[in-house]
């Protein structure tokens, strides 16, 4: 039986609907999972349906605006940084979370910049952050962290003139995420790509951020950050992404040998133990 315990359709500050659900015991340390570009929270199914994970954490995930089951606003104002932070706030409030950890995967890690910009200097809002093969920030952060393979897919994913180019790039990107992904998961991911309006894909990839408060959190040392790189990742160069973080005082960088862009599929135990040990250390410090 799935350990899914709660699902909600939340309303963000600007009225955009945000789908979110949770697995596990709310008394355990909470981790909010944020997926990557043009996908949705279905990428986390293998984690959220695994009692080895829910025995350790209260797992919360949501479809970011413009993705999956959430609302898909296409006005430029809907893609200001504060709007994405407000979506996260709606999830925190909807599930009554107190100082959760936030895990951003791939381009989803950039949302941590939005959250910190909206809650500057607030040491009581988050317990810590996890970059799971994550792009640290928008703009130059994408070029520093993205591989040539991933960056090569983006033009065809953003254009609207050639359906075959879009289909080919979607398939290549999804297959590039993991050779361990099941046909079912690949199909769900491709469905996410197809149902997302191209205008939103463009907003997601080109939106602007101010990373000032993000870097302040690192320089001041109040936000612990775990940066996880995977040696066989075709999408994100985790080591380059970690170097882009600069002088982050409370930073731990770990490589998972042999893992690709979806390490929870092939290296679930190693990833779970790594996160569990780090979370335990943060909470006990």
Automatic annotation (TrEMBL):
<protein>
    <submittedName>
        <fullName>Alpha/beta-hydrolase</fullName>
    </submittedName>
</protein>
<dbReference type="InterPro" id="IPR000073">
    <property type="entry name" value="AB_hydrolase_1"/>
</dbReference>
<feature type="domain" description="AB hydrolase-1">
    <location>
        <begin position="31"/>
        <end position="271"/>
    </location>
</feature>
<dbReference type="InterPro" id="IPR050266">
    <property type="entry name" value="AB_hydrolase_sf"/>
</dbReference>
<dbReference type="InterPro" id="IPR029058">
    <property type="entry name" value="AB_hydrolase_fold"/>
</dbReference>
<dbReference type="Pfam" id="PF12697">
    <property type="entry name" value="Abhydrolase_6"/>
</dbReference>
<dbReference type="GO" id="GO:0016020">
    <property type="term" value="C:membrane"/>
</dbReference>
């Amino acid at each position: 039986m799935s350990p899914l315990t709660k699902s909600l359709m939340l309303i963000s500050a600007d009225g955009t609907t945000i789908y979110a659900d949770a697995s596990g015991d709310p008394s355990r340390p909470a981790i909010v999972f944020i997926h990557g570009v043009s996908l949705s929270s279905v990428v986390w199914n293998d984690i959220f349906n695994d009692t080895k994970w829910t025995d350790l954490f209260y797992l919360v995930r949501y479809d970011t605006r413009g993705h999956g089951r959430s609302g898909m606003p296409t006005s430029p104002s809907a893609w200001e940084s504060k709007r994405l932070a407000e979506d996260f706030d709606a999830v925190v409030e909807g599930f009554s979370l107190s100082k959760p950890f936030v895990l951003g995967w791939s381009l989803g890690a950039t949302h941590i910049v939005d959250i910190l910009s909206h809650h500057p200097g607030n040491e009581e809002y988050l317990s810590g952050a996890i970059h799971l093969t994550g792009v640290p920030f928008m703009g130059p952060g994408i070029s520093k962290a993205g591989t040539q393979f991933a960056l090569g897919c983006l033009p065809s994913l953003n254009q609207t003139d050639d359906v075959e180019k879009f289909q080919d790039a979607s398939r290549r990107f999804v297959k590039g995420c993991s050779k361990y992904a099941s046909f079912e998961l690949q199909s769900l991911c491709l469905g996410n790509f197809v149902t997302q309006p191209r205008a939103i894909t463009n907003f997601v990839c080109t939106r602007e951020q101010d990373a000032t408060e993000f870097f302040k959190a690192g320089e001041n040392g109040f936000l612990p950050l775990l940066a996880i790189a995977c040696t066989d990742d075709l999408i994100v160069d985790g080591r380059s992404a970690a170097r882009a973080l600069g002088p982050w005082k409370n930073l731990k960088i770990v490589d998972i040998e042999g893992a690709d862009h979806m390490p929870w599929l092939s290296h679930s135990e190693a990833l779970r133990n790594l996160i569990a040990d780090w979370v335990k250390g943060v909470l006990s410090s």
